Amino acid sequence: MTLVAGTRVRTREQRTGGHTRLPRYLQHAQGVVVASLGSFPLPDAVVANPNDPRQSELYTVAFPAWSIFPDGDNGTICADLFEEYLETES
Q1: In the chain, is it the N or the C terminus that has fewer CB atoms within a 10 Å radius of its CB?
Q2: Phi and psi of 89, rounded to 5°?
Q3: CATH of the domain at 81
Q4: Per-residue pLDDT tens over the stretch 12-67
Q5: Residue of 35, 39, 63, 65 lying closest to 53 (CA atoms)
């Protein structure tokens, strides 16, 4: 799936016992893709197997601060997240 700016997404829950680049506080969060950054080696796979050639699209996703932190303000939290961590909102 290739995402474009403006696509509404939700982060997935990462239940693996291994390495992940998805911060726990962003699991199940709703946000909007603001940029596509290209394809990069997926760190989760590389940690498990340095010879794993798997690539993944990387996106900058914006989240309203108040939806992540109860005392958050009207600011925005941006995170660069791999496609494996995202699902589109319907």
Answers
A1: C
A2: -85, 140
A3: 2.30.30.50
A4: 887 666 667 888 899 999 999 999 999 999 887 777 777 877 899 999 999 999 99
A5: 39
Distance, CA of 4 to CA of 32 (rounded, Å): 10
Number of domain units in the chain: 1
Asked if the structure places residue 3 within a domain, the reply is no
Cα–Cα distance, 48 to 2 (Å, whole number): 25
3-36: string of b/e by CB count within 10 Å (b at 16+)? beeebebbbeebeeeeebbbeeebeebebbbeeb
| Containing structural domain, residue 41 | 8-88
Separation of first and last alpha carbons in the chain: 14
Maximum separation of any 2 CA atoms in the chain, in Å: 43
Other Cβ atoms less than 10 A from the Cβ of 46: the count is: 15
